[in-house]
Amino acid sequence: MADPARKEATYEDLFDIPENMTGEIVDGELIVTPRPSRKHTSAASALGFEIGPAYQFGRGGPGGWIIILEPEIALGGNILVPDLAGWKQERFPETEETNWISVAPDWVCEILSPSTLRLDKIKKMPIYAQHGVSYFWVIDPTSRTLDGYRLESGRWMVLGAFIQNDKVRAEPFQEIELDLGNLWLAERRSQPPERSQT
């Protein structure tokens, strides 16, 4: 039950947070979290590099998607900033008068940090379901896992749970094989660089 004395946060409140923090409005509450760690941002960047060529640009895959790192998305009265989100191209609004995107994405990925685990899984995950996001991925770079979910009749159904160096074909990006080992910074550092064939 909401606290009647609590003032509902507004978008303008986001302008007052420090530059090294991320601000979101969840169920009327302003939530400020530290900028993610290098392990976190490395996993997000690597996932974008894995998915982007095939799905955003059609290189080695079907294309037809818009994939964005850390977009601001308005879902009802909530302003959420997932680590990555994707829209089928025909659903993405190219121009809006606001900074936030007003159309719910088709896919969202949250990358867990100790400071955001409860926010991402307990607070934001139900909001994504309520607003019809079709697919939700949760990546934990500490335990090196990826959990995939599909929305069915308003509830999240588990598509699969993957770990460490699994080779993954997960909806909605099942046309390509994702090597989870590429997402983990320590794993990539232990691999020798590939040499070009001459």
Can you walk through the features of this model?
- This protein has 198 residues and is α+β, with helices and mostly antiparallel strands.
- It has a single domain, classed as tt1808, chain A.
- The protein is built from three helices and twelve strands.
- The strands form four sheets. Strands 3-6-7-8-9-10 form a six-stranded mixed sheet, with helices on both faces. A two-stranded antiparallel ribbon has the order 1-2. Strands 4-5 form a two-stranded antiparallel sheet.
- A hairpin with a 2-residue loop joins strand 1 and strand 2.
- The protein is globular and about 50 Å long.
- The termini are far apart.
CATH topology: tt1808, chain A
CATH superfamily: tt1808, chain A
Instruction: Give the N-terminus to C-terminus distance in angstroms.
Output: 66 Å
Strand order of the largest sheet: 3-6-7-8-9-10
Q: Largest sheet, described in full?
A: 6 strands, mixed
The H/E string reads EEHEEEEEHEEEEEH
Low-confidence stretches: none
Outline type: globular
How many β strands by DSSP? 12
Mean pLDDT: 89
Gyration radius (Cα, Å) is 17 Å
Strand content: 25-35%
Number of domains: 1
Helix content estimate: 10-25%
Features:
198 residues, alpha+beta, tt1808, chain A, 6-stranded mixed sheet, two-stranded antiparallel sheet, 3 helices, 12 strands, globular
Summarize the entry for a quick read.
The protein is α+β, with helices and mostly antiparallel strands and 198 residues long.
Ordered list of secondary-structure elements with their pairings:
Elements: E1 21-26, E2 29-34, H1 38-55, E3 65-69, E4 73-75, E5 78-80, E6 84-88, E7 107-111, H2 117-130, E8 135-140, E9 145-152, E10 155-163, E11 167-168, E12 178-179, H3 185-190
Parallel strand pairs: 7-8
Antiparallel strand pairs: 1-2, 3-6, 4-5, 6-7, 8-9, 9-10, 11-12
